[in-house]
Write a structure and sequence with these properties.
Blueprint lengths: L1 H20 L5 H43 L4 H14 L9 H34 L1 H9 L23 H4 L8 H5 L1 H10 L2 E3 L5 E3 L4 H17 L9 H18 L6 H24 L2 H26 L10
Antiparallel strand pairs: 1-2
Length: 320
């Protein structure tokens, strides 16, 4: 848990730095640059996986012979296979490496984008309270193509502006933004969103009719602006799920077929697209943009890696 929290803070701080210093506070450009950096760091795992797959592809005929030879002695077959794999420095699950790296990144960035979205909503409310025109100008930067607010899901059933019940979450008082800006924290106490807690910090105030009315009054300009509109058309979640499946299929179709790794690979290949769609449907659209672009980058690099290593497969020597 502590490791996940550290990685989430690292991812959030990194994107915040890019947003404030490099991209001129362009949200989508920040997401794209952050994605490129992460994918460039993980591409070495893709290369290692492909090298392992080439070796596995080369030794597969020998493994098939062992399977036939010891088909009536499973224990001996397992010992001989392990010895053969060790002698040839091959891992049966080497092809799963990119997906095993991808899974933690998936959840880390969900949390990081959720934190970033909460912070931007806080900033928006503060800007709106200070000057309505300033708040409206800031909100206009949250739009991307057909998505009216990138800090809400690209989901035709979701409103453009987050309701109070979705905004007041347990993570809100712990935002790093409040630690860096005590005056902003005090404003939220003055609004009535936070109340002092027994540990000397602040906790969420209970949602009441009065508090809901205050929040609704703050966001009214945005609600009026997008009255009758939804926040999207489910396009990014579909793209995220589709590119996840295509990316894993491109990566796995060149893998040699074996029973042990085959079932594991199939589970990952089916599970990740479904997870991508569901999480992108319920989390803010920035995460869906990140995940889709990450998959596109993975498709490109996987294609290049596959082509560059195909010729090397014939050169690998097998220890019999």
């Amino acid at each position: 848990m502590q490791g996940d929290f550290f990685l989430t803070q690292w991812a959030f701080r990194g994107m915040q730095f890019l947003y404030e210093t490099l991209t001129g506070e362009n949200i989508i450009l920040t997401v794209i640059i952050a994605t490129l950096i992460i994918r460039c760091l993980t591409v070495f795992g893709d290369i290692k996986s492909r090298q392992s797959a080439i070796k596995m592809q080369t030794v597969q005929p020998q493994l098939d012979k062992l399977r036939k030879k010891y088909e009536n002695d499973p224990q001996r077959l397992t010992r001989e296979q392990r010895k053969f794999m060790k002698d040839n420095n091959v891992s049966m699950f080497g092809g799963c490496l990119p997906m095993l790296i991808t899974m933690p990144l998936f959840f880390v960035f969900i949390a990081a984008f959720r934190q970033w979205g909460n912070e931007m909503t806080v900033r928006l409310l503060l800007a709106l309270e200070e000057n309505q025109d300033k708040g409206l100008e800031m909100f206009s930067k949250f739009r991307f193509l057909w998505i009216n607010n990138v800090w809400m899901p690209d989901n035709g059933l979701k409103p453009v502006v987050q309701p109070l019940s979705g905004f007041l979450t347990k993570e809100l008082p712990r935002l790093l933004f409040f630690k860096d800006n005590p005056a902003a924290l005090q404003k939220f106490v003055d609004y009535g969103f936070f109340v002092p807690s027994v540990d000397g910090g602040y906790a969420l105030a209970p949602i009441s009719e009065e508090l809901t009315s205050k929040y609704d009054a703050l966001i009214k300009p945005f609600v009026d602006m997008y009255s009758g509109h939804n926040n999207g058309w489910f396009i990014m979640p579909l793209l995220a799920g589709g590119t996840t499946f295509l990316s894993s299929w491109i990566m796995m179709r060149k893998q040699p077929k074996n029973e042990a790794a085959g079932n594991t690979n199939k589970i990952f290949q089916l599970l990740m697209p479904v997870m991508s769609f569901v999480f992108c449907l319920s989390n803010n659209a920035c995460f869906a943009v990140y995940w889709t672009f990450s998959n596109v980058f993975s498709l490109i690099t996987s294609t290049i890696i596959n082509k560059s290593f195909e010729k090397k497969a014939k050169e690998v020597e097998v220890v019999r």
